[in-house]
Amino acid sequence: MFLLLLILKLTFLAPSAWLVVAKNSLQSSRVDDLNTMQAVQYTVGGPENLFLDEVPIPEPKDGEVLIKVLYTAVNRADTLQRKGGYSPPPGASDIIGLEASGIIDKLGPGCPPSVAVGQKVMVLLAGGGYAQFVTSPWQLVMAVPDQFSMSQAAAVPEVWITAFMLLHKLGHLTKDDTVLVHAGGSGVGTAAVQLVKQIGAKCIITAGSLEKIDFVKTLGADAGINYKEESVGDRVLELSNGKGADLILDCIGASMYDENIKALALDGRWIVYGLMGGAIKSEVNLGALLRKRASLIFSTLRARSLEYKSSLVRDFSQLALPRFENGTFKPVVQTVLPLSDIAKAHTMMEANKTLGKIVLQVHENDSIKEEL
């Protein structure tokens, strides 16, 4: 009889009481059983070949952290990987994405006490950013500046550290230099302009529209050249009183070769880090390079060693993080899209009409809500 009364009592409990029990049980089960995540996958081809799918959550190895990704950002290299032209280095995730911001979710063995679960970080990646979780060596994570939103933080690691490497580590930038920055409205370009001005050097940029030139001047560029309307080489010589550019940051390649030769100063440093304008130049005048005693340097960042990148992140952090905090340096974010709009983001990137960064919101329903 007692058992029968108990069953009847439970049967007539308020529905909300059952819902609370069921909801709590389901949440606990979901946390315990969580072993997959959403990530962007692709087949080689156009932006339409990008899609979201479920994949296993990676486990942090020795010296690595697992990061819950809140935002990632689109880079030119991402579009090359999608086309089959830029494979990840050995050991890196084959998921696209070279930078992210998020929260440290788990530590692998061997992480130092300075790294802790719950920290808000931005991270330089060799791959894996277009996903809800990513692993990284702890040495490549940086604290998010207090003044930053997490979407701004995602716009920093790849382009700012690339610009820092090109200017300071490879280009040996000095305050007396005249620097020519191609694609001044790009992510690397907008970062490079601010780094050049911080040291007090003169900065000339190229861009394909007056709108881009005017905007980058607000970041500190001294002059802008519309490469569609005038000779870049001739204009650089005019702007430098015939001296030319001591340092050129070139992401264009073959199509800008002749103009760069003309623009380069005696003993100039010319750093090629991209080939948006092609890789093949049928006629190369080595004599012009020899007469100018030019240093021609080719560089990428993604496949460099952990030791090199760790040193780079450390030195960049010492220079840049205080200046992000006080507003001297500002990441440029044009738009924030949901990760589900990844095809649209790649289409925008390849149209060459963006200013700064395209950022992707990964955890769209996360408890952290913010606006740019």
Automatic annotation (TrEMBL):
Keywords: NADP, Oxidoreductase, Signal
InterPro entries recorded: ADH-like_C (IPR013149), ADH-like_N (IPR013154), ER (IPR020843), GroES-like_sf (IPR011032), NAD(P)-bd_dom_sf (IPR036291), Quinone_OxRdtase_PIG3 (IPR014189)
An annotated Gene Ontology molecular function: NADPH binding
Domain of life where this protein originates: Eukaryota
Domain Enoyl reductase (ER): 45-360
Signal peptide stretch: 1-22
PANTHER family: QUINONE OXIDOREDUCTASE PIG3, QUINONE OXIDOREDUCTASE PIG3-RELATED
Family annotation (NCBIfam families): quinone_pig3 (TIGR02824)
Protein's recorded name: Enoyl reductase (ER) domain-containing protein
